[in-house]
Batch of 2 targets.
Target 1
Amino acid sequence: MKRSDRPVRLAILLLAGLGLSACATPPAATRAEAPARPAWALVIHGGAGVMDRETMGPETEASYRAAMQAALARGRAVLDTGGTSLDAVIAVVRGLEDDPQFNAGKGAVFTADGRNELDAAIMDGATLKAGAVAGITGTKNPITLARAVMEKSPHVMLIGAGAEKFGQQAGVEQADAAWFFTERRWQSLKKTLKEKGLPVPARPAGVGPEPVPLAAADMPFEDRKYGTVGVVALDNAGHVAAGTSTGGTTAKLWGRVGDVPIIGAGTYANDKSCAVSATGTGEYFIRLGVARAICDLVELKGMSLQQAADEVIQARLTALGGDGGIVAVTPDGQVAWSFNTSGMYRARQVAGGEPLVGIFKGEP
Ligand code: ASP
């Protein structure tokens, strides 16, 4: 064989080999084991943190469980009727943003200077389009603004006043500071600032004077609960999407942006791997690129979704000193959650299966 013939012969051999392996019939066992993809799947979180059944009390526990069931029902209504994963994400997140029990939209935590600065993001696994907003103070549902950024602007992320102006022009519903205010979050801010020896700012305009005495429901949170909300969904067409919305962390410095609107940190979706929504101390999730890291392990290392989630949350996040968790779904219908805190409000359901709701560690 002439030296110059060699590459041609090699290429022919390679092609023949590839053809053979492509035509080869997989062993019967492999074929039988491949599970059918469920028509849809939905996994939701309502924040992770220190959660203890006794401190929480039966009424609060029941109320959060009911909120998680209601969130599942909203997503199920979209997916069961052939709606898209993006629409399911919006339906679920908007409902949780309007629920004052969660740290997103109404009921968000306050910055150290007494304002609500909200972050949100959404991502479409089919197109890799994403929309994110940060430092939002006057938009009722930040997740809807994030979707408008994704669909109606040439950008991925808008912040502060510019984001609000864009939202007004796009017809996104506005709200004033009083809409987001809850006495309980205000009392939590006061408690945190006093513990840190920092001054307590004036109450926001339009919320009235502090009630004396405080009702039991207005007492500051004892435990460190986050309450960010997030959803991942798989739809009938096989597309995944993720969305997350938060007020951030109590007494954060004004202007601080967390992981939620950072694509790949707190929110990520890709039809080639998975969709992830995170909750926890955002700084760690940003540094580890948590959501993207999980999807990369699925795509590039062939890990199952649960293995990948545990590798990033239980091993990497814990090793760095971070706390929190994630929910995730793959286009083939695997669902997972993983958290290294004592609790995470969470719920999931797969088409044809039963809803599953949990709060504390050790529940199924
Ligand atoms: N990850 C959010 C943030 O750091 C907070 C949370 O999940 O509770 O902004």
Target 2
Amino acid sequence: MNALNLPAALIERLHDAYGERVGEVLRGYETARPVTFRVNPCKTTRQEVADRLNERHISFSQPEWYEDAFVLCGGGEDCLIGTPPYERGEIYLQSLSSMLPPIVLSPRAGETILDMTAAPGGKTTQMAALSGGKALITACERDAIRYERLCFNLRRQGAERVSALHTDALTLNDGLKFDKILLDAPCTGSGTIAPGSRVRFSDAYLSKCAALQKKLIAKALRLLKPGGMLVYSTCSVLPEENDDAAAYAVSLGARALPVQLPVGIPLLPSRQRTVCVCPDELYEGFYIAAFIK
Ligand code: SAM
């Protein structure tokens, strides 16, 4: 019996992937991470947010690699949810690891960008913010309820220039062509397990996710302009959804680009040029790979 009552099939997969290092992953799962959020520069400034937190005697830190990211030192989400800055979309609750793929994608003004599987829109709104609201972003989501949530977040975060599409990305017309695509793929979520998580995992579910991820990768490569960039990410630490998906992209002719994360982010072994963040007391498990078509 393990502390989190994890399914035996998941533990077996982790052992196969990481051998003796599996203990690091399990310790990461057992650690409650602090509340983290991102400032929305379309609506406020870092200084204003820091002043508000100081006024309320809420202490915080900031990772060196992202000026807009804040980490609360103590206190739960209820310190922020329902407060005016939260309701006005000046801040967005988001894990630190989940802020990394948009930074790797590095959206610029004027670029056409597809966020292929976008809801609830954390990374869509981050990409809008990173481009100063000037990238031409299309955000696609197939689930109706999650699509509503995406639209709500786009409105609240002031990302009005994003075009939201309620559709299955696999049905998009291949005639559409984008400069950059973020595929933050649906996955087992094996990186995000934390105390209190209800873990849904089976080998069949893993195979289903891996098959869909490959279909989405093939589609993304068809929707990219020649020379365009694909960033593939999951909140999983399992190679079946990560390195195997990256190898598939390469088998379809994509060229892997090196992904480099700031020093100090804990990493698990992964295929060359990709990164797999190891869950710990600050970071969720996450995988990022980047390609040029
Ligand atoms: N990037 C999002 C964020 O940062 O807020 C999280 C995306 S979540 C990992 C994956 C999303 O993909 C889910 O909302 C799921 O409903 C959606 N999805 C799954 N298959 C899809 C498909 N074929 N087309 C479009 N969306 C899809």
